[in-house]
Design brief:
It is built from 13 helices and eleven strands. It is an alpha/beta fold. It folds into three domains: 287 residues, Rossmann fold (3-Layer(aba) Sandwich); 26 residues; 113 residues, no CATH class. It has an eight-stranded mixed β-sheet. Strands 4-6-7 form a three-stranded antiparallel β-sheet, with no helix packed on it. Helix 1 runs antiparallel to helix 7 and helix 9 runs parallel beside helix 12.
Length: 449
């Protein structure tokens, strides 16, 4: 009943539209804040995108499908653990390329092994609740398009890129001495360090085997507007980390503006190999219940939980009593056959032959009357004998005398055991010839004995 009521009263929840305050940057999402268009663009232009639904530890395995580029977009639904950050940076240090597209990325991922310090500044204007990511005018209000700062592989065929008004900015500082003091700040990536003794590497306590990056490998700013640095890349071990400060540029709502699509493709497809979109930290793949995820938003989950509750209640009530204890029922130790046999034996010992004849002859009359189609209570034994003889092709006088003898004994005529056995045996023979199947043949045999 609960399951039926739940299914009948279920109302599909209205899908909540995407918002910049709580975006969903998954490549599965077709809403304004999703990146499905970016993923499909890569697939349709001959690139090799894939949705990565495993922990970062899988990147370190020697698999043939090991990606060359790993893309993390926006604030993830599942936070990076310290162990996962260590594994991801180890993969980058071995030659991988990590692309981070976020306004406020995890600080542990925006690191370089060169003698530079990378820092991000939060956007001056945070996304508001009423910000509509599908409204291009509202998202880009009073925001100038960004221009390439220099010709690079990332800015190839890019004239301008339109970011949102919520984009953050990235800066970096050059460290020139081993005491980690800074000698130069750069907003456009122009400073080049020449220290002979570079400082300890970022995250070196976690990844001791990373090879230090030479001091001449400095961060490079590829894209900026009059206020912010939007795109920068910097070395990490033998690999590279690319950081874009606004996910709106690659989102479904903004990728079609000016050269946003071209920039997005250049960033992730600048080298050969598989491009892995991080869907594991968006809540997909290992660590999530696929069955509940499949039936999410339907009454199936509630029905299943109600079923478990009902089963638990059944087990609980079966093991408890809610009233006074009842006396244990005593089984009937006498079967019907035992009762009939006992009565037959009692009649034999008391020589109550008339009672035995009465029991058997009464049943005989009832069944034969039904068989020949007469009323047992009003038909005389002579008429019944005639019908029986005609039906079984017997001697009418013999049947009539047999029935008369039975009724005579019932009225009190003296008899003996031998005569009773002969009469009952003849009655059984007539029943067989008439085709009457006795349902209690064993009981009758007991009475006969």
């Amino acid at each position: 009943m609960l399951v039926g009521l739940n299914a009948a009263s279920f109302v599909q929840k209205e899908k909540i539209p995407d918002s910049e305050d709580n975006p969903n940057r998954s490549s599965f999402n077709t809403g304004a804040t999703g990146t499905r268009a970016f993923y499909d663009l890569l697939a349709e232009t001959g690139r090799r995108p894939t949705r990565w639904q495993e922990p970062p530890s899988a990147l370190l395995s020697s698999s043939k499908n090991k990606p060359s580029t790993f893309v993390v977009i926006g604030k993830t639904r599942r936070e990076f653990s310290d162990k996962e950050i260590e594994q991801l940076l180890r993969w980058v240090a071995e030659g991988g390329k990590l692309v981070i597209i976020d306004r406020e990325p995890p600080e542990e991922l925006v690191k370089t092994t060169a003698n530079w310090i990378i820092s991000t500044n939060s956007p001056k204007e945070n996304p508001v609740l009423d910000a509509d990511p599908s409204d291009k005018k509202q998202m880009t209000e009073k925001t100038a398009a960004a221009k390439p700062t220099q010709p690079t592989i990332f800015t190839d065929k890019v004239n301008a890129v339109q970011s949102s008004r919520f984009a953050s900015t990235v800066n970096f500082e050059h460290i020139s001495r081993g005491d980690n003091s800074t000698t130069e700040k750069s907003g456009q990536g122009s400073g080049i360090g020449t220290s002979e003794n570079p400082p300890p590497m970022a995250n070196s306590e976690k990844i001791p085997e990373i090879i230090e990056t030479v001091a001449l490998d400095a961060p490079v700013v590829h894209l900026a507007n009059n206020e912010k640095n939007l795109l920068i890349d910097f070395p990490f071990g033998s690999g590279k980390i690319v950081y874009l400060t606004d996910p709106y540029i690659v989102s479904n709502g903004g990728i079609a503006l000016v050269d946003n699509a071209q920039l997005a493709v250049n960033i992730v497809a600048s080298q050969d190999g598989m491009i892995a979109f991080d869907e594991y930290h968006q809540g997909f793949g290992e660590g999530s219940n696929q069955i509940f995820a499949y039936f999410a938003g339907t009454p199936v989950v509630a029905i299943f939980l109600q079923f478990l509750v009902l089963v638990g209640l059944i087990f609980f009530t079966q093991s408890r009593r809610f009233a006074r204890p009842l006396p244990e029922a005593e089984p009937n130790r006498l079967s019907k056959l035992e009762y009939v046999s006992a009565m037959a034996e009692l009649q034999r010992r008391t020589k109550a032959f008339d009672l035995a004849i009465e029991n058997i002859y009464t049943e005989f009359r009832r069944q034969t009357s039904r068989l020949v189609g007469v009323d047992n209570s009003t038909t005389s034994y002579k008429d019944l004998a005639e019908k029986i003889a005609e039906r079984a092709k017997l001697n009418r006088a013999e049947v009539e005398n047999l029935m008369f003898k039975c009724e005579d004994i019932i009225r009190g005529e003296p008899t003996n055991e031998r005569e009773v056995l002969q009469i009952i045996s003849r009655l059984r023979e007539i029943e067989v010839e008439l085709g009457i199947r006795r349902r209690t043949r064993r009981h009758g045999d007991a009475v006969t004995r």
